[in-house]
Amino acid sequence: YTALQVTVQRRMSHGLQFGSAYSWSKNMTYSAIPVFLSASLYYGKASYDQTHIFNFNYTYDIPRASKLLPASLGPVSRQVLDGWQLSGITSFSSGVPLGVTLTTTNSADLTGGGDGQRPNLTCNPNLSHGQRNVNEFFNTACFALPPGLGITAIGNASPTDVFRGPGIANWDSTIFKNFPLRKESRALQFRWEFYNLFNHTQFTTVNASAVFNPTTGAQTNARFGHATAARNGRI
After folding, report:
1. What b/e readout covers 192-219, taking b as 16+ CB neighbours within 10 angstroms?
2. pTM summary value
3. Which among 228, 230, 87 is positioned nearest to 171, based on CA atoms?
4. Residue 130 falls in which region: left (phi positive, over 0), alpha (psi -120 to 50) or beta
5. From CA 148, how far away is CA 112, in angstroms rounded?
6. Backbone angle region of 142, left / alpha / beta, with phi > 0 → left and psi within -120 to 50 → alpha
7. How would you classify the pairing of strands 101-104 and 209-212?
8. Distance of alpha carbon 183 from alpha carbon 152, whole angstroms
9. Exposed, middle or buried by CB within 10 Å (0-12, 13-18, 19+), for 139?
């Protein structure tokens, strides 16, 4: 594991405080290695590796707008316009590495002895953010059925590090309104909380199960590469 980690904090001053944390990292590991195969085929990014993780939290006491109105409106304007506060947590992070599984339409054991089988990787399956969509989260044309049987049928695709899964871009925000009760030490507070404020679709699961016809070599899973689940919408 190697990383650059940065933290910034600002304590409450002029009604504002915030904190942020960022990490740029790489986490490499081995998956289970059959004794007769090269360890390099099972070395790659860990299933929990996230290249970028950024979190930002803030609290802001909104300035008293009653000061902008005539003094004659003082009591009313203070109750309506003062005592507002905004806070929230914003998170951005890369998706984790994911592998692609391989089965056949006739459930054939291509490698024999129960050893894991995986497809051949023919190109880089990762798509840019602008190219990704719900029906094609990665380039499904980059996978092929390995030739032959036995060791040659294991395929060259990493078991855990083939493409990047969905990342996170989330905004949780809260708006407070404090109503003073006689003394400033007491207040009645109304709170509006928004989770996933901008209702941004954030996928969680991608169908990564390649199913090949062993006779023709064609991939037959119509849902292969589709995003199949998402985090909650705005609450």
Report:
1. eeeebbeeeebbeebbbebbbeeeeeeb
2. 0.80
3. 87
4. alpha
5. 11
6. alpha
7. parallel
8. 79
9. middle
Residue ranges in 43-111 assigned as alpha helix (H): 74-81
pLDDT tens digits, one per residue of 15-33: 999 999 999 999 998 876 5
DSSP tag of 69 = S
Per-residue confidence (pLDDT) for residue 88, from 0 to 100 = 97
Q: What tokens does 93 get? A: 């992070």
User: Rounded to an integer, what distance in angstroms lies between the CA atom of residue 213 and that of residue 85?
Assistant: 60
Measuring CA to CA, which residue among 58, 57, 55, 48 is closest to residue 22? 55
Are 4 and 25 in contact by the 8 Å Cβ rule? The answer is yes
The one-letter code for the residue type at 231 is: R
